[in-house]
């Protein structure tokens, strides 16, 4: 994989949790921005819900563990999935550092039992595992 930078999502600024994303070297948009742009047209309500939940975490609640499905990557790498609202189809992957910081990546449609079964989900989880490994 190539290099990347971690950038703060200033539009999601808050005192409870800092939210960041990843921008790959040579790209103008972040992984999270690409996720939003790709799914907003067909899944607008779900994308808005994910955005609002992230904003709520940043400003009011922090990134509490109960909001995430933990251990989506390798044990101990802190890669997690933002829990789906019942009946929703989008999954967003991230790295959760306690309640105080979150690095959001990309995701996709959860139409399979495990992320390994879908190439889009697998690519996004593997990217977050790579970011976690590089940070450590």
Secondary structure elements and their pairing?
Blueprint: E1 4-8, E2 18-24, H1 31-39, H2 44-61, E3 68-69, E4 79-82, E5 90-97, E6 101-109, H3 119-135
Parallel strand pairs: 2-6
Antiparallel strand pairs: 1-2, 3-4, 4-5, 5-6
Oligomer: single chain
The shape is: globular
**Beta-strand percentage range:** 25-35%
Q: In angstroms, what is the radius of gyration? A: 14 Å
Structural class: alpha+beta
- Total DSSP helices: 3
The overall average pLDDT, rounded, is: 92
Distance between the termini: 16 Å
Largest sheet: 6 strands, mixed
Helix percent reads 25-40%
Please provide the ordered H/E string of secondary-structure elements.
EEHHEEEEH
Number of strands: 6
**Strand neighbour order, sheet with most strands:** 1-2-6-5-4-3
**Uncertain stretches of 5 or more adjacent residues:** none
Explain how this protein is built:
This protein is an alpha+beta fold and 136 residues long. 32% of the residues lie in helices and 26% in strands. The chain has 3 helices and 6 strands, in the order ββααββββα. Strand 4 (79-82) and strand 5 (90-97) form a beta hairpin. It is globular, with a radius of gyration of 14 Å. The relative contact order is 0.18. The model has no long low-confidence stretch (mean pLDDT 92).
Could you write a compact summary of the structure shown?
By secondary structure, the chain is α+β, with helices and mostly antiparallel strands. Helices cover 32% and strands 26% of the residues.
